[in-house]
């Protein structure tokens, strides 16, 4: 990725972007943040479903015995207990049992049928 002055690898922290796009507006809005300076940071690839920004779960279309659990946009760890249970149920029973996760299926991506969240703040 090019940040305007340097080539930034996905595993590099883009301090220039942080200072200009995040830190400056944050400190402007909450002045006490001016006194707090970050000491460490990390960066890495961001798993995101660009169709609708929701997870893609369940059987992969066109590939037998392949189940998907991706596209969580940074929420994978938070959702992992429920997703693990749901996929285990689907694998064992051929369907979701406890919570119906079928709205997050791979076929919506193939059909380009986004799942639109209506209650996003």
Using only C-alpha atoms, the radius of gyration works out to 19 Å
How many separate domains? Answer: 2
| Fraction in helix | 25-40%
Uncertain regions spanning at least 5 consecutive residues = none
| Main beta-sheet strand count, sense and barrel state | 2 strands, antiparallel
Helix count?
Answer: 3
Instruction: Give the ordered list of helices and strands.
Output: HEEHH
- Tell me the fraction of residues in β-strands, as a range: 5-15%
What labels describe this entry?
elongated, 3 helices, two-stranded antiparallel ribbon, 2 domains, 31% helix, mainly alpha, 121 residues, single chain, 2 strands
Which helices and strands appear, and what pairs or packs with what?
Blueprint (H helix, E strand, L loop, with lengths): L14 H15 L26 E4 L7 E4 L5 H18 L12 H5 L11
Antiparallel strand pairs: 1-2
Briefly summarize what is shown.
The chain has helices spanning 15-29, 76-93, 106-110, and strands at 56-59, 67-70.
Question: How does this model look, in words?
Answer:
The chain is mainly alpha-helical and 121 residues long. The protein has helices at residues 15-29, 76-93, 106-110; strands at 56-59, 67-70. The chain is built from 3 helices and 2 strands.
